[in-house]
Amino acid sequence: MKIIVSHPTSNQVNRAMLKGLQEAKQLQSFYTSVATFPNNPIDRLSGLKLFSELKKRQFPSELQKLTHTYPYKELMRMILPKFSMQNHTVGERAKFSIYSVYQYFDKMVANQLLKETNAGAEAIYAYEDGAYHSFVKAKELGLKCLYDQPIGYWQVAHKILQKERELWPEWEATLPGLNDSEEKLLNKDKELALADCVFAASTFTANTLKEYSGNIKQVKVVPFGFPAINTEKKITKIESNKKIKLLFVGGLSQRKGIANLFKAVENLKNHVELTIVGRKLNDHCSILNETLKKHHYIPSLPFPKVLELMAEQDIFVFPSLFEGFGMVITEAMSQGLPVITTVNTAGGDLIEHGKNGWLVTPGSTDELTSLLQELIENPEQITTAAQEALKTAKKRPWATYANEVVETIENLKY
């Protein structure tokens, strides 16, 4: 089957899948907003500090002939904030918002599908918020529509986040996900209705789709891969008289359960030290601003530095209430850092409680506190889990994910 892949911004997951499809000779074309290739003009531009973010959009040269780009809106979204013009990029209705980028891009791809069909394409693989117009055109042309659901279904998110708003009103400023327009939410439902198959990265995500009132033809769960494991990691015994080093990496939102984490750590502050890496959504949450002062806070780090930091910690804590997967989980485990997370992430698919990590009930501060207390009293459990986390990571490299996606697509029944 010849497949068109469409992703406005691309990421590690998308790149792994592209490689798998290309190696299987099933990739007909790849559409994205901005792409650089070794030594092309945009790649040289990325050497300038102002445009260094473009380095994240580099692809291997063997993909260049298959790649088509529509860079206008995405480049503006990336560049305008550097000139203090973020008012053109912030907010769903802004001309160069991320949603605007996705909608513009989707329409541009839809305009190319007749040509792609005439060239032999049989399916299009597209992503949430950027698939509707492409899927409408694909249906007209007889193409199969493969849909990637990167996070849980929006109605489930709203139920969870509304409850959090009531439980933690002082953290409301960190919950902007409740502000999506009716148009945007309806667009998500239209995409699901058109999909011939929905791909989810976790059982949790797949289960949230049961709340969709329409008909979803089929859902396939294919968990993401792990980064290359840290072969130099030396897992040593944790001395009982030392504080346990805890790490959180992610957006500073109560969707990630940070209020629960801070409360649990406050109860155990004489026995643990917490490092936080992640950007604030805004500066309007006073309790977040004050709490960060009590811990080691790092607003951002380059990805290699994040991995280095992970390798230096004892436990990664990610008590998220609503995820699609949570790639920080696999990143931590690849560095020999055992993870505490919830089943509302990929935790239910990757972690065996008490063996290679731990699972707590989403939103339960008491359960998180009790688990941390147990690990403080029995630190040998951390050492064992760290060893098992590395073994788990080694078994599922990105190539395994890519092969499973290709195999799943090949075996789909329509």
Can you offer a commentary on this structure?
The protein is an alpha/beta fold. Helices cover 40% and strands 14% of the residues. The chain has helices at 12-23, 41-45, 72-79, 98-110, 113-118, 132-141, 154-167, 182-194, 203-208, 258-267, 286-292, 303-311, 327-334, 347-350, 365-377, 380-395, 398-410, and strands at residues 3-6, 27-32, 67-69, 123-127, 144-149, 197-200, 219-221, 244-249, 272-277, 296-298, 315-318, 339-342, 357-360. The strands form 2 sheets. Strands 3-2-1-4-5-6-7 form a 7-stranded parallel sheet, with helices on both faces. Strands 10-9-8-11-12-13 form a 6-stranded parallel sheet, with helices on both faces. Strand 8, helix 10 and strand 9 form a beta-alpha-beta unit. Helix 6 (132-141) runs parallel beside helix 8 (182-194). 44% of the residues are buried.
